[in-house]
Please model this.
Amino acid sequence: MKKVVTAMFAVAMLGFAGAAHAECTLKDAPVLPDGASAAEADMVAAQQAVKAYVAETQEYLSCLEFEGKGRAGGDWTKKYNDASTRMEKLAAEFNKQLRAFKSK
Model:
């Protein structure tokens, strides 16, 4: 009986370990409206989408850091830097469109 319980525990832990090492994924960045012609509702929706994307990207970066612990360089570092750059560019582009919206 003890061997059966131990075997079941081992199988359960293997399943959990596989789930814990799921691949880090990130969705595409949202499309931003043209601030010069966008309605206020469109800009509010874009702001919410950007905030959600930034939060998702931060989770993605944390996932990459966890997966890359103990491994110098490699593919995870490039993915991390690329995601950080995309997040910064999206935020800068949103701010540009927001300034255009406010200047109407």
